[in-house]
């Protein structure tokens, strides 16, 4: 399969000599993406040796340990949860699996920090709702595990990142050829042996991609770890930025964090490269589901538990808080009026900044994707890779870089909402590039050629033939950028001009002060606003067809 | 396709608009007011003769950076807006040092008009870096002299005391601590909540202790807190709610958090620590406000400062937030104990502000969360 693909690309390349204008446009986009990254390295290397020395002595090793420990724990947790949920809903006769498929993917609409706020309020030792309830029932304090620190952070981040793995492994389970497992069974393997010796190894590339996506997410995570007071690189950089009056320490920590992320990303790209073509032969047929037998009820309870903790409880609690907030006139007034602007302005700010970021990211991704798909060569592939670095630059680092860069080079843009939009574009560009590339990959170049033969210019061809055909794919990429921008917290917190609050910022500002009721309506709206594009995206996924 | 064109058009128009709107500010050079390094001269009221700004004349935006958390400033902003309906107030609330960083970054391209902070060291340090313009608000002559910045570069607003609050259901009267140094006693292990290193009031307390006790003793105290498994929250609201809810027995807070928790019906008590001979006395922090040098909306900024030190503004701080107003003659909230009865720690603001960086080093050294 690989070889045919390559020959195919080779033919495309031969028939269309590289377009210098397109390459220039792609190069400019890559430059735009690379500048903040390079700037952070320059700042980090330019920091005084004193700052390096102090950090090496005190912070770096502990932060590195903390961060990697959390990455490993959450990635393992997400793999375990994601794969087992995918297996149960795709491969067994689990009752209610059709509904569970949706419910297991929907936690992607809940930012981890919002889930964290809810679980913290529920579980906080002595003060949480659950410990209090237990105390009322048993008339004495009952020990409950604390959600603060490492275990709490690992637990909550697992709850809200496992859907990445779930979606990827679900799709892989679905597309795997039935004969593979049948062959194993014929050779006398038990269903369990088949699962571990045949099925899971076949899923490996998809799983690795999902795992690395989770790992990059954890590196960049700010809200949840700050809330649960577990210190990682991201939260330490944030504290540095809001702490002392010099940026060198923050730059040093950012430089190290970006190197970590690039290492992960490099691994992810390598695995992606190997995993790009899944087998989908024409005689594909679904594997008959495994009968769970007496495990039906425990399995059902397990999936219900995961769905409750990651979706039903957070949404239910937010809804209950929102109702309480609306019923209490004083709280209601503070929700509607708090801050310098009204509640409506937060919704509007969230929507337009995320939408604008989505439009720009998709527009920018087009030359990059066209260049790498239509004219594949070393340069165009490099440009495409470079545009993936947004995954590797956590929000806090983008914020630091943009504050310094924009104020020096583009002071007229400084302290405008557009800096926030630029941060969203930089951070979420990879999603747009990947979506555009996959949309273009599905399009036969012969359509273009026919149009050119009929006398259309390349621009006319693009506008009249290519664009209408790839539009659904572009919309998907745009929705993904919109969804992730809507949830973005650290860069928005650091870059927003006075008076420009988004839903995410409002949720955080209220929750950080412990005003959960006031935070709830904004949080619930944010979840609903994220659920709509997510629904659109999931409809395109194989497992929901 | 047409949607795409339209969105592109919108973006270009927006970018152009923002470019046009921003261009004049970009060329604005900061007035070269070199802040005096040693501000020993007693400040004579330079600008008292500035007439009170007419309410109707002030309009446009007013951009406030505030280290006071939003809920603690909002009532005052609402009252100000009621008085100046033509002013649109835009607020960015964060930690003192985060906003101080922004002000320094923006020195050549000022964005904010007013800076409100919860301690004096940050505002004094910024004043020395030329971030503020001199302004003596109308009525500021009613302030004690030590709460007016050198050269009128900042104006004090209110005082807060650093106290220990306790949950009265969980702690009996005889076992109450009397000093902040009791907080390192192992008998309170895991039972104390406080605010962490990004909180301005906590930073100021550590800075004050460094001046009063020296580096070593302060470090011992901080390490003692960490060894005693004190839980450090981002802000004091969390602390007061956790103590009020029985999650912790003791909380190190500003005094008004005790009153706010009490007003919500919590069974909490308050301890004004270190009152005996040989102890350091009650540590207080002043909140302050300043007008930013090169502010785009200076008249509105000055009107806002006037309002903050006016009897009306001071009463709002006193009544709604139980703070000690600095302007003489404004009544305390009846439940609040007057400061006259306490031994107060005496801290030199200018000296502490010049030494403030060392406080951050210390917090980093001991690993204060």
Model description:
- The complex is a heterodimer of chains A (545) and B (369).
- With 545 residues, chain A is mainly alpha-helical.
- Chain A contains 24 helices and no strands.
- In chain A, helix 4 crosses helix 10 (191-220).
- In chain A, 51% of the residues are buried.
- The model of chain A is unreliable at 1-15 and 275-280 (pLDDT under 50).
- Chain B is an alpha/beta fold and 369 residues long.
- In chain B, 39% of the residues lie in helices and 16% in strands.
- Chain B has helices spanning 2-27, 70-83, 96-105, 120-128, 200-213, 215-227, 236-244, 255-263, 298-309, 311-321, 349-354, 356-366; strands at residues 60-66, 87-93, 114-117, 132-133, 155-167, 192-195, 231-233, 250-254, 268-271, 284-292, 324-325.
- Chain B starts with a helix and ends with a helix.
- The chains are: A mainly alpha (545), B alpha/beta (369).
- Chains A and B meet through helix 12, helix 16, helix 18 and helix 21 of A and helix 1, strand 1, helix 2, strand 2 and helix 3 of B.
Counted by DSSP, the helix tally of chain B is 12
Count the beta strands of chain A: 0
Proportion of residues in extended strands of chain A? under 5%
Note the beta-strand portion of chain B: 15-25%
What oligomerization state is this entry in?
heterodimer
Name a few traits of the molecule.
heterodimer; A: 545 residues; mainly alpha; 24 helices; globular; B: 369 residues; alpha/beta; 11 strands
What does the secondary structure layout of this molecule look like, with pairings?
The complex is a heterodimer of chains A (545) and B (369).
Chain A: H1 2-15, H2 20-46, H3 49-58, H4 60-91, H5 97-105, H6 112-123, H7 129-138, H8 149-175, H9 178-186, H10 191-220, H11 223-227, H12 233-242, H13 248-275, H14 296-327, H15 329-337, H16 343-374, H17 378-386, H18 395-409, H19 417-441, H20 445-453, H21 458-487, H22 490-495, H23 503-512, H24 516-540
Helix pairs in contact in A: 2-13, 2-16, 2-17, 2-18, 4-5, 4-8, 4-10, 6-8, 6-14, 8-10, 9-10, 10-13, 12-13, 12-18, 14-24, 15-24, 16-17, 16-19, 16-21, 18-19, 19-21, 20-21, 21-24, 23-24
Chain B: H1 2-27, E1 60-66, H2 70-83, E2 87-93, H3 96-105, E3 114-117, H4 120-128, E4 132-133, E5 155-167, E6 192-195, H5 200-213, H6 215-227, E7 231-233, H7 236-244, E8 250-254, H8 255-263, E9 268-271, E10 284-292, H9 298-309, H10 311-321, E11 324-325, H11 349-354, H12 356-366
Helix pairs in contact in B: 2-10, 5-6, 5-12, 7-8
